Amino acid sequence: MTTEEALILLEQLLSAHCRIKDIQELVFRQAWEGKTYQEIADESGYSPEHIRDVGFRLWQLLGNRLNTKVTKHNLHAIFRQFSESSMAIASPHPLDPLFICDRLSESRNLLLPAEFPGMPLGLTAPFYIERPPIEQRCFEAILQQGALIRIAAPQQMGKTSLLNRILYVASKKGCKTVRMNFQQADQAALESLNLFLRWFCKSISWKLNLDAPLNAYWDTDRGLAKSSCTRYFEDYLLSQSDRPLIVGLDEVDRIFAYPKLAQDFLPLLRVWHEEANESEIWQRLHLVVVHATELYLPLQVHQSPFNVGLPIRLPELTLDQVSELARRYGLPWKAEQSAQLMELVGGHPYLLQLTFYHLWQGDFHFSQILAEPITENGIYNSHLQRQWEVVTANPILLEELRRILTQPVSGLSVETHQLQSLGLIRIKGNWVRWRCRLYEQYFQSRLSSP
């Protein structure tokens, strides 16, 4: 198991309990590669005591999750054992013969859901449903020189799961891979371009198990942050080897709320991508940009990274794919049940996973779910409550939702697109419709209550 594969498994194991911090990832990565706490401390600049404490707490978290004792010394054995006992059965794939499971055992015992739905699906998760030809196009495109892939979809549609698979395929083809989650950036970094770019460069260096000699490449004069960052990439990160560097940028929406930062950083991505047309070294940088919301900032056409590269918009699952997902959960299922469920929740992957999880657990009968979809005791209640809290926190967004409820909407606003990014509505041309009957019933009920 490679370091990157182990890191993905680490995130899968702990994501339901906590967000993996940069320092935890650093300790895990270097411990996995056999380094002592003292060596990790010497290379990272932290004290040995701090590194040892981070490691001790991380092994405790893993031990609690796996119900066994985990130490720095048995880490490889524990992860190998867990991976070999995973639920997936690999099947041939054009780019990687050991990649994603398309055929599963019919044994119900092999189909136990690993955890409650809601987190990105692991590489071996049998409940990931491919949406051809999207995966194959991405796997081919990411290997092209200077590649840029843009993945856009509403929340919980499978963007991060796809990103992880793209990075996995690239790593198996000999590329260096890094996944950056912008939710990990501190508030202070998001309010300063210079701090953000230094965080960005340092984090990538750590994820590549490299030193981060920022000061050797950074000019502290005002207005030179982007030039310094570009120099760091060109003269340091991309010059380390002739292997391609794949950088997956997840949760890019986070910076959309900081207009000054977004208007500087996003055009920088475009510049780097265009440099690949002229410079061999910039051909080594391949980017995957993942976001849910649309950007509403006055970027010039020639500055935006959102009108170049390969655009990918994740669609909802089809009727046949819904039936396949039910089969993978080992449920006795008929095609007409897929149609009934889709009439309620559409082809939304998360809502479908949530439904099948509870059916598999035996918590509810299918007829009960259809009859009581928006009750407080229903399986969708927590999800609907979260969506309601997001909408009501923004009065303008709430007013736009009222407008959609009362009349067919043909005029699109920023708020309309924000509701789409939440997955609540569907935009087709200039017309707006509810994404599914579940959302329409729930919000109609909440907004009509006194």
Commentary on this structure:
There is one protein chain. With 450 residues, the protein is an alpha/beta fold. Helices cover 48% and strands 8% of the residues. It has helices spanning 3-14, 22-32, 37-44, 48-66, 75-84, 134-141, 159-172, 187-190, 193-207, 225-237, 259-275, 319-328, 335-345, 349-361, 366-371, 381-392, 395-406, 414-421, 437-448, and strands spanning 148-152, 176-181, 245-250, 285-291, 310-313, 425-428, 431-434. A 5-stranded parallel beta sheet has the order 2-3-4-1-5, sandwiched between helices. The chain has a two-stranded antiparallel ribbon with strand order 6-7. β3 (245-250), α11 (259-275) and β4 form a beta-alpha-beta unit. α2 packs across α4 (48-66) and α3 (37-44) crosses α4. The chain is globular and about 65 Å long. The termini are far apart. Residues 86-114 have low confidence and may be disordered. It comes from Lyngbya confervoides BDU141951. Keywords: Plasmid.
